Each structure stands twice: as C-alpha cells, then as structure tokens.
Amino acid sequence: MTQESRSQGRPSQKQQLEIQESLRKFFEKGISATSTSQLTGINIKTVCKYFEEWVEQIKEINDTDFLKRVKLEREHYLAVLDQQLLKLYELQDEIEKYIIHPKTSSDDGRVIQSPHYKERMNIVNMICQIMNKKFELLSEIPKQKPTEISKN
To answer: Could you give the CA distance from residue 14 to residue 25 in angstroms, rounded to a whole number?
Structure first.
C-alpha cells in the first residue's frame, strides 16, 4: 500500500493492520527502516514507529529470559553452597567429639590442646566464607525495569 493510494489522515484500523503486516516482513528480514520506507512508499516515521515497537518487544522478551536464567543460576549456586555447608557442619560435629574431652598432662595437670583445634578453626573459616558468599548472592538484586518489579 503506497501513500498515494491512501487518503490523507489517519488510516483505518484495517489499513493499520495491513501496513503493520507489510512492514513486519521487512523487519523480520533485517531491512532498514529507510529502505523499507522507500520500497513500500510508507512514511518513514510510520515505519520507524513499528520497527521501534518490535525492537522493544524483543528486548522485553530477552530481558525476561535473562532475568529468569540469572535467578535459576543463583538458586542453583545457593543450593550448592548449602550442600557444602551441610558437609562442613557434619565434619565440624565429628571434630567436636575429639575436642570435648581434653587431655591433661600427668606432670603438671595442664590441659593438652587437641591437634584438632586447628582443623576446627579451618572449618569455621570455610563456613564463614560460604555464609558470606550466600549473603552476597542473596543481597544482589537483578536490574529490572520498574514495571517488572511491580509485576513480581
């Protein structure tokens, strides 16, 4: 449909759909708005309007997919960290069994420090590191558009 075949003014809804349908073919093939306007005779502003709408729709879909992927990856990573924490807590409980009953020296009655204290401190350090990483992950907020935040 060319500009000459249309009367002046806003096209009818049926004509708008026809315009949109004809422009969509060019958009999907990656033809520029300028070339599309020249080939179809449709005003460049109209062509740009539709092209921009379609680009925004694609961006929104991609943003939503990206946010979903980030959320799933974060949940997976948190689950892995939780598994590691459980293993460390189990190991810590095992070491505690050896530390609870300290040995005393028969000579002067001093408590002999268990060699497991160092292992226990290493485990506590690892637990703290994992807890910090979990906190960092939970504190991160994916960048969302205001409309996306209100939908959640």
So the answer is: 17
* pLDDT tens profile 15-40: 889 999 999 999 988 899 999 999 99
Torsion of the alpha carbons at 78, 81, 86 and 89, rounded to the nearest 10: -130
- Phi, then psi, of 104 in degrees rounded to 5: -115, 150
Domain ranges of the chain: 69-151
Q: Residue 6 in 3-state DSSP? A: coil
Verdict on whether the full-model pTM lies above 0.70 = no
d(CA 81, CA 32): 48
Query: How does pLDDT run across 41-69, given as a tens digit for each residue?
Result: 999 999 999 999 998 888 888 777 787 88
Dmax of the chain from CA atoms?
A: 112
